[in-house]
Structures are given as structure tokens and as C-alpha cells.
Amino acid sequence: MTPLLSRLSSASVLLAAAVAFATVPPAPKLPPVTWAKDIAPIINQSCAECHHPGGPGPFPLLTYADARRRARQIAQVTGSRFMPPWLPEPGSGPFVHARRLPRSP
Ligand code: HEC
After folding, report:
1. Which residue among 52, 77, 103 has the greatest number of ligand 1 atoms within 8 angstroms of its CB, and so is best to mutate?
2. Rounded to an integer, what distance in angstroms lies between the CA atom of residue 48 and that of residue 59?
3. What's the pLDDT score for residue 93?
4. 19, 29, 56, 69: which one has the fewest Cβ atoms less than 10 Å from its Cβ?
5. What is the pLDDT of residue 105?
6. Ligand 1 midpoint to CA 37 (Å)
7. Which tens digits make up the pLDDT trace of 3-35?
8. Where are the beta strands (DSSP E) in 9-100?
9. Binding site membership of 49 for ligand 1 (Cβ less than 6 Å)
10. Confidence (pTM)
11. Is residue 90 within 8 Å of 83, Cβ to Cβ?
């Protein structure tokens, strides 16, 4: 490649990179996660059935304070799929009223 051609082609690579960078849309701004809007519906649907006073769960999960107190443990047990308890092997079913939480993307 002649020096001029090589200079031109590196200029076009730079230009392409600049155009690509300029046309990448900014990451969408997600609204903040809130207890009432995002978390309570999941807890009410998947956890409160057992985690209420007198229920089979060892502690209640009804309020923000209940969940905040155990946030780290909740992340662990839902991440490991220990909770909500659901014994069928992954891939078996489908079952009506399956208790599995959907995987996050
Ligand atoms: C079908 C009833 C049931 C449902 C639904 C349920 N749990 Fe539980 N949960 C239990 C029982 C029973 C235990 C005690 C299990 C044990 O100690 O082995 C428990 C224990 C836990 C623990 C303590 C685990 C530990 O290692 O000590 C956490 C945290 C928890 N559940 C969170 C949740 C969350 C979050 C949900 C919803 C996503 C949920 N549970 C749904 C019955 C339930």
C-alpha cells in the first residue's frame, strides 16, 4: 500500500468509528426501582402466600421493612432458586400454577 493510500484508509477507519460512535443511541434511562411499583407485586405474588404471620415461611415478607431487612438473603435464595420452593426439575412440565420466578434477561 502506498503511504497515501494507507493514510487514507486509516482516516476512513477513524471516520467510520466516529460515525458509529455518533449514531449509537444513548442507553435508555430506566426509571428508579420502587417497592410499590416493582418489588411488592413480585413478593405478593410469589412469596407472601407462605411468608406471612402463621404461614409456613419462617418470617413474614409483607412490608418494605420485612424485605429490606433480608434483602441480601432474598437475592441469594431467589438467585439459587431455593425460593420460591418448586420441586419439579427445570424443563419438566409445564405445570399450572408453577411457582418458579422467571429468569431475568
Ligand atoms: C410454598 C411456601 C413458600 C413460598 C411460596 C416462599 N417461601 Fe421462602 N421459605 C419457605 C419455608 C418453609 C422456608 C424455610 C425453609 C428452610 O429453612 O429450609 C423458607 C425460607 C426462606 C428464606 C430463608 C432461607 C434460609 O436459608 O434460611 C428466605 C430468605 C425466603 N424463604 C425467601 C422467600 C422469597 C423471597 C420468596 C418469594 C420469591 C419465598 N421465600 C417464597 C416457604 C416458602
Report:
1. 77
2. 10
3. 83
4. 29
5. 55
6. 22
7. 655 665 665 555 555 555 667 778 889 999 999
8. none
9. yes
10. 0.78
11. no
